[in-house]
Design goal:
By secondary structure, the protein is mainly α. It contains 3 helices and no strands.
């Protein structure tokens, strides 16, 4: 890893987030409504937060 990668999340963490977003979006996110309102429904916040999309991510060790 070079110096530009410091602080970057591990590849498996990124892959996990992408997979979460793919699954979540298949579950009924109305992207047109999100675009029109320029915001997410508050019902999406708990799921996004539990996946670590809002803020600090720490190692599980």
């Amino acid at each position: 890893m070079d110096s530009t990668d410091k602080g970057a999340p591990p590849h498996d963490a990124v892959s996990g987030m992408l997979e979460f977003l793919r699954r979540y979006s298949r579950g009924g996110v109305d992207s047109r409504r999100v675009d029109e309102r320029r915001s997410f429904s508050t019902s999406l916040v708990p799921g996004f937060a539990s996946a670590g999309l809002f803020g600090l991510r720490t190692h599980s060790e």
